[in-house]
Structure to design on (747 residues):
C-alpha cells in the first residue's frame, strides 16, 4: 500500500506525512509532497513523477528526490489511545517519504504521482494529483460588510489560484482600551486581546486551556471598552483571528471561502446585550428547558449495571443529597448504542428500529429491567439520560445488529462520504482517535437523521428516558468529505454537532418531551439546541479555572444552559478541598453536574460521588458541604428557571460576565473569574488552593453579603474571608433580604 492524501487526515492542527503542505501553496514558494507506504515497499525504489505545467511549451515529466522521514498521522508519532476504551494503532510499520517541489509560479497547473516498487518486484502507482499555486491580491469585492462599516480600507485581500478563491483576509480597528471576547467556548482566557485563535470544532481531550483548542467555537466576538460593537464572520468554514497580537491596533481575520459569492461580515453596534441579541436574531436562541434541568446531575462511567445505578440513587437518598438527573454512559452493548447490554433479541436484518417488546432482558444480566429501573428513578424524582455517539462502530469487525445497521446505512445512503482512489466516493471512515474507522451518519440531512433517531424511539416512548448525552460530535475530519446535500466538509463539518443535538431534540419533542440534550461540541446555531458541558478534563485547580472561562465565554456567545464536570472527571480524584470549592462554584452555574471516567473498576474507586471523595480523602467535611450546596441549589431552582426565561427573552446571559452590565468599567477585566447568575446574584468562586481569603470586585451599586446580611457599597475591590464552607456571593437590589434568608436556611 502506498498512500498520498493531498489534504491529509483533516486534523486541523497537524500536518500528516502523506499530505501536500501547504494544501494551497503560494506562488514563489515550494510545497512538500508526502507519501506513506507499508513495510514491503523498497525505500530505494520509491519515486515521485513531477510534471510542471507551462502554457507556452510542453514540459517533460521529471523525478523529484524523496527523503525518508519520521511517520506522523493525525498529530501522532506513536501508537496511542483516547480514553480507556480507545485503541488507535498509528504508523506502526508504515514508512514515510517526502519531496520538496521547485519554486512555484502563479497561473500553472502542477501534476504529480508516486511510484513504489515492492520487495517482490511489483510496481504500484498512485493516480495523478494536481494543484495550482495561489497568490494574495487586493480584492475589496471579496467581502460583503453588513452593518456599520468598520473594515480598515485597503485591508481586504483574496487568495486566488487563477481559477478559484481559497481565502479572504481583512482587518478591523482595535482601540487601546478595547477588549475582545466571545468566540464560542474558550478555556484559556475570557479576554482574547493579544491572542491568536481559530474557529474549528475539535476534540481536545483535556488541557483545553493550555492547548487553546475548543469543542464549541464560533466566529463571533464582542469588542468592549470603546464604542461598543461586535461582529460575526458569517460562515461555517474555518476562520483565523489575530486579536492585536501582530499589531495592537488591528484585529486581523482570515477565512476559508467557497467558490461562489463574497464572504459576509456582519457588524453589530451597541451594548454587549444588544450585540448578542443582534447575533442571536440571525442564528437562533435557546429553547427554554424545564426546571428540573437545574437540579443536580450525577453520573459515573462505572455505573454500568442497573444494580449500580439504583445503588447510587439510593446513596443520594441516604446521604440526603437531592439529585435531579442521572446520566448512564455505559448502558449499551457498546456496538449499536441502541440496545442495552445483555439484551436478547432478533436482529433486524433491514436495519429497522426495534420496539421494547422485541427484547428479553435476562434476570442475571446487567440490565434486567430497564423500564422498571426508569420507573423507579422517576418515582424518586430523578430523570434519566442515556449516552450516545454519532457513529456505527466498525472495530472489531461488526456482527449481528451493528453489521445489519452498517449494511442498511450504506444501502439507504444515509452516510457522510469521502473521495475514493478511483475518483468516486465511498462511506467516510472516522479518522479521529475515538472509535476509529466508524461510519458516520449525515445528521445534517433530515432523512438520514430520522433514520438514525428512529432506532432510539423505543428508549424514549417505551422505556421513558428523558434526554440524551449527545457526546462526540467532533468526528467529521476532512475538507473533502461529501455530505448528502452535495456540500463538502470544509463547509459542513463545523455544523455537524449542531444538527446532531437538533436531531435528538426533535426525537424527544416528537414523543412529547422537552428537547434535553447534553453536548460538548457545537458551533454557531448550537444556542437553540439543548444544554452543554465543558468536556473532558483532569481534576486540577488549573482545569477548574479554565472551565470557568469556558462557561463565561460560552455565555457571552449565547449559550444559556452550560455546566462542567465538577472538579474534573479524569485521572486521580480531586482533593477534598478542590472538590468542595468546585461544588460551590457549580451550585451557581446553569447546569450542576458531576461525572467520572471509566477506570476498569479498579480499586480504589475514582468515582466523583461525594461519598467516594470523602472516603478516599478521609475528609469529613465533604459530604455535609456538598449536601449544603446541593440543597441550596434546590432552593435556587425557581430563581434559575425565571432567570433562564429572562435570559432567552432579553439576551442578557444567565451566567453573565460582569462586562455585560458594566461594559465601561475597566475593573471587570481584572482579577479572578466572577459573574452574575441572573440579575441579582454576584458569584466569586474560590479558584486557588489554601485560600483563606480572596479579592472580590463589586461594581457600582449596593450589594449585600448573602451569608452575613452586611450591606456594602459597590464600585470597589474588597478582600473577604473564604472559609472552606463559604463561597463569596452578593445580592443586589431591593430583593437582597430575600436571598439572605434563602442562604440562611440551607442546612
Amino acid at each position: 500500500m502506498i498512500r498520498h492524501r493531498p489534504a491529509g487526515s483533516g486534523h486541523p492542527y497537524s500536518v500528516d506525512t502523506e499530505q501536500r503542505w501547504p494544501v494551497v501553496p503560494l506562488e514563489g514558494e515550494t510545497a512538500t509532497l508526502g507519501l506513506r507506504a507499508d513495510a514491503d515497499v523498497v525505500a530505494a525504489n520509491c519515486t515521485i513523477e513531477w510534471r510542471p505545467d507551462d502554457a507556452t511549451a510542453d514540459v517533460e515529466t521529471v523525478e523529484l528526490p524523496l527523503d525518508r522521514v519520521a511517520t506522523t498521522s493525525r498529530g501522532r508519532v506513536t501508537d496511542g489511545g483516547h480514553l480507556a476504551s480507545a485503541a488507535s494503532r498509528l504508523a506502526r510499520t508504515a514508512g514515510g517519504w517526502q519531496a520538496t517541489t521547485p519554486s512555484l509560479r502563479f497561473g500553472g497547473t502542477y501534476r504529480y504521482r508516486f511510484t513504489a516498487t515492492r520487495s517482490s518486484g511489483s510496481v504500484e502507482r498512485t493516480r495523478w494529483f494536481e494543484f495550482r499555486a495561489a497568490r494574495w491580491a487586493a480584492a475589496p469585492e471579496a467581502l460583503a460588510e453588513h452593518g456599520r462599516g468598520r473594515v480598515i480600507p485597503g485591508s481586504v485581500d483574496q487568495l486566488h489560484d487563477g481559477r478559484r478563491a481559497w481565502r479572504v483576509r481583512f482587518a478591523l480597528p482595535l482601540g487601546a482600551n478595547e477588549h475582545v471576547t466571545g468566540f464560542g467556548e474558550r478555556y484559556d482566557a475570557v479576554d482574547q486581546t493579544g491572542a491568536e485563535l481559530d474557529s474549528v470544532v475539535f476534540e481536545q481531550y483535556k488541557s483545553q486551556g493550555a492547548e487553546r483548542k475548543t469543542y464549541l467555537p464560533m466566529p463571533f466576538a464582542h469588542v468592549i471598552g470603546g464604542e461598543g460593537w461586535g461582529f460575526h464572520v458569517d460562515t461555517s468554514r474555518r476562520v483565523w483571528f489575530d486579536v492585536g497580537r501582530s499589531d495592537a491596533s488591528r484585529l486581523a481575520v482570515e477565512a476559508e471561502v467557497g467558490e461562489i459569492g463574497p464572504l459576509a461580515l456582519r457588524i453589530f453596534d451597541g451594548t454587549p446585550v444588544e450585540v448578542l441579541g443582534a447575533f442571536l436574531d440571525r442564528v437562533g436562541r435557546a429553547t427554554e428547558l424545564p426546571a428540573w434541568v437545574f437540579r443536580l446531575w450525577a453520573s459515573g462511567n462505572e455505573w454500568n449495571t442497573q444494580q449500580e445505578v439504583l445503588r447510587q440513587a439510593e446513596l443520594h437518598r441516604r446521604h440526603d443529597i437531592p439529585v435531579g438527573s442521572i446520566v448512564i454512559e455505559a448502558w449499551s452493548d457498546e456496538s449499536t448504542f441502541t440496545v442495552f447490554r445483555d439484551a436478547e433479541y432478533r436482529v433486524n436484518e433491514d436495519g429497522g428500529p426495534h420496539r421494547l417488546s422485541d427484547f428479553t432482558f435476562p434476570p442475571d444480566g446487567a440490565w434486567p429491567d430497564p423500564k422498571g429501573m426508569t420507573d423507579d428513578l422517576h418515582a424518586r424524582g430523578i430523570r434519566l439520560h442515556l449516552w450516545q455517539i454519532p457513529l456505527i462502530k466498525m472495530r472489531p469487525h461488526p456482527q449481528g445488529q451493528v453489521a445489519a445497521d452498517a449494511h442498511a446505512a450504506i444501502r439507504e445512503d444515509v452516510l457522510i462520504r469521502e473521495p475514493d482512489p478511483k475518483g468516486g466516493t465511498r462511506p467516510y471512515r472516522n479518522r479521529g482517535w475515538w472509535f476509529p474507522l466508524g461510519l458516520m451518519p449525515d445528521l445534517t440531512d433530515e432523512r438520514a437523521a430520522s433514520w438514525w433517531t428512529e432506532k432510539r424511539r423505543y428508549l424514549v416512548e417505551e422505556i421513558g428516558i428523558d434526554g440524551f448525552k449527545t457526546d462526540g460530535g467532533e468526528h467529521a475530519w476532512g475538507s473533502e468529505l461529501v455530505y448528502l446535500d452535495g456540500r463538502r466538509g470544509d463547509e459542513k463539518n463545523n455544523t455537524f454537532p449542531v444538527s446532531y443535538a437538533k436531531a435528538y431534540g426533535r426525537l424527544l419533542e416528537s414523543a412529547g418531551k422537552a428537547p434535553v440534550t447534553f453536548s460538548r461540541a457545537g458551533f454557531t446555531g448550537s444556542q437553540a439546541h439543548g444544554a452543554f458541558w465543558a468536556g473532558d478534563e483532569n481534576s486540577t485547580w488549573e482545569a477548574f479555572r479554565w472551565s470557568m472561562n469556558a462557561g463565561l465565554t460560552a455565555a457571552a456567545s449565547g449559550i444559556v444552559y452550560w455546566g462542567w464536570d465538577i472538579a474534573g472527571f479524569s485521572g486521580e480524584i480531586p482533593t477534598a478541598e478542590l472538590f468542595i470549592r468546585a461544588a460551590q462554584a457549580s451550585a451557581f452555574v446553569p447546569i450542576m453536574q458531576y461525572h467520572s471516567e471509566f477506570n476498569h473498576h479498579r480499586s480504589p474507586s475514582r468515582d466523583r460521588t461525594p461519598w467516594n471523595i470523602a472516603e478516599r480523602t478521609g475528609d469529613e467535611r465533604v459530604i455535609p458541604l456538598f449536601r449544603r450546596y446541593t440543597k441550596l441549589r434546590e432552593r435556587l431552582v425557581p430563581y434559575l428557571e425565571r432567570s433562564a426565561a429572562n435570559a432567552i427573552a432579553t439576551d442578557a446571559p444567565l451566567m453573565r460576565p460582569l462586562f455585560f452590565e458594566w461594559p465601561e468599567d475597566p475593573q471587570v477585566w481584572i482579577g479572578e473569574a466572577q459573574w452574575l447568575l441572573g440579575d441579582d446574584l454576584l458569584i466569586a468562586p474560590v479558584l486557588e488552593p489554601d485560600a483563606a481569603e480572596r479579592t472580590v470586585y463589586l461594581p457600582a451599586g449596593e450589594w449585600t453579603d448573602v451569608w452575613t446580611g452586611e450591606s456594602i457599597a459597590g464600585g470597589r475591590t474588597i478582600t473577604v474571608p473564604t472559609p472552606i464552607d463559604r463561597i463569596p456571593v452578593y445580592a443586589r437590589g431591593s430583593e437582597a433580604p430575600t436571598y439572605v434568608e434563602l442562604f440562611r436556611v440551607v442546612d
User: Anything to note?
Assistant: The mean pLDDT is 94. DSSP finds 14 helices and 39 strands in the chain.
